[in-house]
Structures are given as structure tokens and as C-alpha cells.
Write a structure and sequence with these properties.
The chain contains 15 helices and no strands. With 379 residues, the protein is mostly helical.
């Protein structure tokens, strides 16, 4: 299983790809996910678990799902899995050919079901995990939608004013820019630059932003920016709550499914998201390999609340660690909801103030010279 971790659906490690290869791979995965959305993958897994439990064999169940597929792309997706299964491949291996759709956790659960003979039960666990994961991602994306929308709107408003409004006032202000207020001179110069070079400057800026976003998602970018993100007010609490909830949930599910602790810890690191938490679980795995307890790395670690670390230590001593992890996961799911509410409560007024301030600065840079002109005319 470890050989498949951190690999793309094209069999190459993400961190070994060049920038342009990473962009091309990301676009290919995006197209596949648009053709077969996560919600549809969840529906397929849920129905497969139900049909498998009702007595249909795997090939028959996949054939039914292929025939009732809502779109040709979904039918092709299910059909490729069915073809691999009918050619003798285990379901986990057939699903592994579509790692853009199935996470390493889902593949590990299916493989555990094949090993224990409880494939139907494990498919149900996969569906539950995917449903929880999709729900969390939707909550986070919903929280981020407003600030992103406001930022894009602010940029569009500024560009509109600079290109369409400032040129009309340039002649009015005369040919002595040194007498104009500093903000007015700045925006007039910026307006001239956009008018002269906007056709290539604006797309270049968009590419730079896209490159920065992609760069922050690389291993080097995560090492640099992830610790900073954890310190951002409100946003840092949201990241911590999501990382802890996902990692502890995966750890508990994997241990309940019968996977060994080391593989469960690797999968917990794989879904943690933030690089600080990824490193935490890797360190924990290294200590467990040397015979230490999981809680030894978590106790007194600022990334894990002391109460949770103490509960894990108690669970290890009492042999009830999966139960403890399940309770911690439920607690942190509530924390995710409260962290999202707190983030939205902070970001909404902040973005409104920032956007209003930018627009007010631009408008004032137009009004101030007009006041001066009117005073000169009166005198």
C-alpha cells in the first residue's frame, strides 16, 4: 500500500513533476472530476455496498451500475473497474487505477475488506468516510467562497475605475501632475500603465496568481506557508480543526478495520493536509516503529490539544484507542463547524472594510483634485 501513497493516477510522484507537468496533471484530474464528480463516486460506492450485501457478486453489481450510469463518462468509469475485476484483479487494485476518484484511505479499506472477507462492510465504511470527507470539504469551500468572491470583485472594480474612469479625469486635472495629491498621481500612472500594457499585463498577473497558488501546494511551498497559515487568526483554528478531525477519523477507522498501526499512521499523515500535521504523524510513525506509544509524540505538542493527547494515552493503556479516536473525531467535527462560523464572522466584515477602503481611496483621489480646482476657480 505504501508504494501507492502520494502518487497520481498517472503513476508518478507529484513532487517529482515539473511546474508545467504539475499544471497539465492538475488540469487532467480536474477534467476527470468534472466528468465523474465526487458525489457520483460516493453514490457508486454506496450502491455497490448495498448490492454486494444483498447477494449480487461483484461483477454483477458493477454491471448493473454501469448500465444505470447517468452519463457516458460515469458508465465508462464503472466499466473500466468491472473489466479489471473480470480480468482477475482485486477490487482494490481496479479502483487504484483511478486514484483521482479514490483516496489511499478508501483503497486501504477495500483491501482490508478483501483480506478479511468483509468486502461489503468495508465498502460501507468507504462510503461513510467519503461522505464525511466530502461534507468537510464543502464546508471549508463554502467558508472560503465569500472572501474569494469579495477579493475578485474588489480587483474588478479597481480595474474598471482605472481603465474607464481615470482617463476621463486626466485632461481635467491638467498637465501639471506634480501639483496633484500623491494618491491621485499614483492612480493616474497606474491607469496609464493598464491602458498601454493591460492586454498582456492582466493575463500575466492572473498567471502569476495561479503559479503562486500551485507553488503553495508543492512540497516546498507547503513547508514554507503551512506554518504561517496556522498562525492566521480564525483561519489557523479552522485548519487545525480540519486536520485533527480528518487524521483522527482515519486513524480510528483504519485501526477498527484491522490495519496495522504503522499503515494507519501513514494514512493519517496522508489526509492531514497541513504540512505541520503531516510531519507530526510521520514523527509519530517513526517512534512507533521503535516501540514507543502514539501518545508520546502527541503529549505536550502544541498541534494537539492536551485533553485529546491525554485521552489517547488512556485509550492505549486500556486497549480502547479506536473508541477514543471516534469520540475525539466527533468532538472535532463540532469544532470544525464552530471554526468555520468564527472564520466567516471575522472575514466578512474584514473583506467589506478592505474593499470599501480601496474604493474610498480611489474615489477620494478623484475628488480631492476637483476640490482644489473649484477653489482655484472661485479665487
Amino acid at each position: 500500500m505504501s508504494s501507492q501513497l502520494d502518487r497520481s493516477s498517472f503513476g508518478v510522484r507529484v513532487d517529482e513533476l515539473s511546474f508545467f507537468d504539475r499544471v497539465r496533471r492538475g488540469s487532467q484530474i480536474m477534467v476527470k472530476r468534472m466528468q465523474v464528480p465526487n458525489d457520483q463516486v460516493l453514490e457508486i460506492v454506496t450502491q455497490l455496498a448495498i448490492m454486494f450485501d444483498t447477494g449480487l457478486n461483484l461483477s454483477q453489481a458493477l454491471e448493473v451500475l454501469e448500465k444505470q450510469a447517468a452519463t457516458p463518462h460515469i458508465g465508462e468509469f464503472v466499466g473500466s473497474i468491472r473489466a479489471d475485476v473480470e480480468n482477475g484483479k482485486p477490487l482494490s487494485q481496479a479502483m487504484g487505477q483511478h486514484e483521482w476518484a479514490f483516496s489511499p484511505v478508501a483503497l486501504a479499506l477495500v483491501r482490508a475488506g478483501e483480506m478479511t472477507g468483509d468486502l461489503g462492510g468495508m465498502l460501507q465504511k468507504v462510503a461513510e468516510f467519503m461522505e464525511r470527507d466530502i461534507s468537510t470539504k464543502k464546508k471549508v469551500k463554502g467558508a472560503m467562497a465569500y472572501p474569494i468572491f469579495m477579493a475578485v470583485l474588489a480587483v474588478c472594480v479597481v480595474i474598471f475605475l482605472l481603465i474607464n474612469v481615470f482617463p476621463k479625469f486626466a485632461d481635467l486635472f491638467g498637465d501639471q501632475p506634480e501639483k496633484l495629491p500623491g494618491p491621485t498621481r499614483f492612480f493616474l500612472n497606474l491607469s496609464e500603465i493598464l491602458q498601454a500594457h493591460g492586454m498582456w499585463l492582466l493575463p500575466s498577473m492572473a498567471l502569476m496568481v495561479a503559479g503562486a497558488v500551485i507553488g503553495m501546494r508543492t512540497r516546498e511551498g507547503k513547508k514554507l506557508f503551512d506554518p504561517i497559515f496556522l498562525r492566521v487568526p480564525a483561519f489557523g483554528k479552522l485548519i487545525k480543526a480540519v486536520s485533527i478531525s480528518r487524521s483522527f477519523h482515519v486513524l480510528g477507522v483504519m485501526m477498527n478495520a484491522g490495519l496495522n498501526v504503522l499503515e494507519a499512521l501513514q494514512l493519517a499523515a496522508d489526509v492531514a493536509g497541513n504540512q505541520r500535521y503531516v510531519q507530526l504523524w510521520h514523527n509519530t510513525k517513526a517512534k512507533v516503529e521503535n516501540g514507543r506509544d502514539i501518545s508520546e509524540t502527541l503529549i505536550d505538542n502544541p498541534l494537539i490539544p492536551p485533553a485529546e493527547a491525554a485521552m489517547i494515552s488512556l485509550g492505549e493503556r486500556s486497549g480502547t484507542l479506536p473508541v477514543v479516536l471516534h469520540k475525539i473525531t466527533g468532538h472535532h467535527e463540532k469544532k470544525v463547524d464552530s471554526a468555520i462560523k468564527a472564520f466567516v464572522a471575522v472575514i466578512e466584515p474584514a473583506m467589506t472594510i478592505i474593499m470599501g477602503g480601496v474604493v474610498a481611496l480611489i474615489v477620494s483621489s478623484l475628488i480631492l483634485p476637483m476640490f482644489k480646482i473649484s477653489q482655484v476657480m472661485k479665487n
